[in-house]
UniProtKB/TrEMBL annotation:
Protein name: Peptide deformylase
Family: Belongs to the polypeptide deformylase family.
Function comment: Removes the formyl group from the N-terminal Met of newly synthesized proteins.
Enzymatic reactions: N-terminal N-formyl-L-methionyl-[peptide] + H2O = N-terminal L-methionyl-[peptide] + formate
A GO MF label: metal ion binding
Keyword Metal-binding: yes
EC number(s) stated in the UniProt entry for this protein: 3.5.1.88
Keyword check for Hydrolase: yes
Taxonomic lineage: Eukaryota, Metazoa, Spiralia, Gnathifera, Rotifera
One of the GO biological process terms: translation
Length: 225
């Protein structure tokens, strides 16, 4: 998912990257079948395997703004990215709702379910908008170039996943923007693009408005600042 968040550029240590044999991953095309069918749950031994560790290292390397630019990605700011967007058939995504040049959390086997606002733990920072069951906001996606949409998402969700150490987490809560990014990335691993759903949130994300442009400059001019 692309991000509107500003993030500071961090200098990449190219020499270090070469020593670790990091590979710049290329984004797959919107029509690639890997983006349109669900990715299977990973077994714990697969999550802990050296092969997966190398894939995760390549993903963390490739989501940085500088590397996205090198890979000719449609955007350089990311809030998250799912493995299948790079053509990788693994149920993994990177989660960085604050921007892609800070820490990116590695998430395996994610799921989510909506929770109603009155089930949300008491949080003094909760805003009034988080009292709604769903909310509308703009989204853009690395797999849907030169386009954006207004997408209805659940405001509060309960998430489950396995972390980088192979530890299972269950029923943690997310709200607002973080919940939106989580839903967008999990939907990728379920074979769903935000732009494919215009049938009501009961059936997945509900894209209520969709705008696609012919060129990147047209998109840049039209994308609300
Ligand atoms: Zn996306």
């Amino acid at each position: 998912m692309s991000s509107q968040c500003d993030s500071k550029d961090k200098k990449d240590n190219e020499n270090q990257c070469e020593q670790q044999n990091l590979q710049l991953l290329k984004l797959t095309a919107e029509t690639d079948p890997i983006l349109h069918s669900p990715i299977e749950e990973m077994r714990l031994e697969d999550i802990r395997s050296p092969e997966t560790k190398q894939i995760v290292a390549n993903m963390i390397y490739s989501i940085r703004a500088k590397q996205l630019e090198r890979a000719n990605a449609p955007f350089t700011k990311a809030a998250g990215m799912a493995a299948n967007q790079w053509g990788i058939n693994k149920r993994i995504f990177l989660f960085c709702p604050k921007g892609n040049d800070g820490e990116a959390k590695v998430v395996f086997n994610p799921t989510y379910k909506p929770i109603s606002p009155n089930q949300v733990s008491t949080d003094p920072t909760k805003t009034k908008s988080e009292d709604q069951f769903t909310n509308l906001y703009r989204e853009a996606c690395f797999s849907v170039p030169q386009a954006y949409g207004i997408v209805e998402r659940y405001t509060n969700i309960a998430i489950s996943y396995v972390d980088i150490n192979g530890v299972q987490h269950t029923d943690e809560q997310l709200s607002g923007w973080k919940a939106r990014v989580w839903q967008h990335e999990t939907d990728h691993l379920d074979g769903v693009l935000y732009s494919n759903r215009q049938s009501g949130i009961k059936y997945g994300p509900n894209c209520t408005e969709f705008h696609r442009f012919q060129t990147k400059s047209e998109f840049d001019e039209s994308y609300p600042k």
